[in-house]
Write a structure and sequence with these properties.
Shape: globular
Helix content: 10-25%
Order of helices and strands: EEHEEHEEEEEHHEE
Distance between the termini: 44 Å
Radius of gyration: 18 Å
Length: 238
């Protein structure tokens, strides 16, 4: 069984976890497009490296949307999955993103709080009233790092800490403030009429912190966005 898959950027691997960088345009898990996913590629990597005879156990602890790249952690055992999932749910797993927004927020830093509802039929997340059946409380914190006047209009470079992890949360919450993610054809009206296919949007999971599920060691992983939407920024300045 030989692999022709893309080269994977592995930041850390041991008997319990794999921390890897998901490329933009690659799904987290197998989907109806039958494209290679992070789960399928990492499973094949384990299968080949460890000369397995059976399919390896591997689950993502959190997910990144297909057009979003960045740091992810995967569990290689059910015990590690349970421990890491608890950290993700109780907020002790810290997730930071870098984002490029089309527009300017009213404050240099702040907290966004909304109730979100995922429409599974259209695969879109909507901001709704608190009392809407199925609505989930959603919160993030942001800090504006820079605001730029460009040929495409005003762009804001923002650092985001995700407090709750809802479906398409960051994309939906900023879109509600009329500062959608650059390149986001699903939520940003500035890009919804284009026929261009964006495999990458201006959103990147750049930092992930958690305690190792077995040793308890506090682990921090970082990855800066490269190219694409972020090519317009001089990230060395930050």
């Amino acid at each position: 069984m030989r692999s022709k898959q893309m080269k994977l950027n592995i930041l850390h691997e041991d008997s319990d976890i794999i921390v890897a960088v998901k490329p933009c345009g690659v799904p987290t898990q197998p989907d109806k497009t039958n494209s290679e996913s992070m789960v399928s590629m990492l499973k094949l990597r384990i299968y080949e490296r460890e000369n397995r005879k059976e399919e390896p156990y591997l689950v993502p602890i959190h997910r990144l949307d297909r057009p979003v790249g960045g740091v992810m952690v995967f569990a290689k055992t059910p015990e590690a999955a349970a421990a890491l999932s608890k950290q993700s749910e109780d907020g002790t797993m810290l997730k930071y993103y870098q984002a490029i927004l089309t527009g300017e927020l009213p404050n240099d830093q702040g907290v966004l709080k909304d109730y979100l509802l995922h429409d599974t039929k259209d695969n879109v997340t909507k901001t709704v009233d608190k009392d809407t059946p199925g609505a989930k409380y959603s919160e993030l914190e942001y800090e504006v790092l820079d605001v730029m006047d460009t040929d495409e209009g005003v762009l804001s470079y923002v650092l985001v800490e995700l407090i709750t992890g809802r479906h398409h949360q960051i994309r939906a919450q900023f879109a509600k403030r009329k500062c959608g993610i650059w390149g986001d054809t699903k939520y940003n009206p500035k890009f919804q009429k284009t026929k261009k296919k964006y495999k990458e949007i201006g959103l990147h999971a750049s930092r992930l912190e958690f305690d190792h599920p077995t040793t308890g060691e506090h682990m921090v992983f970082k990855h800066e966005p490269e190219g694409g939407a972020f090519a317009i920024l001089d990230l060395d300045e930050f």
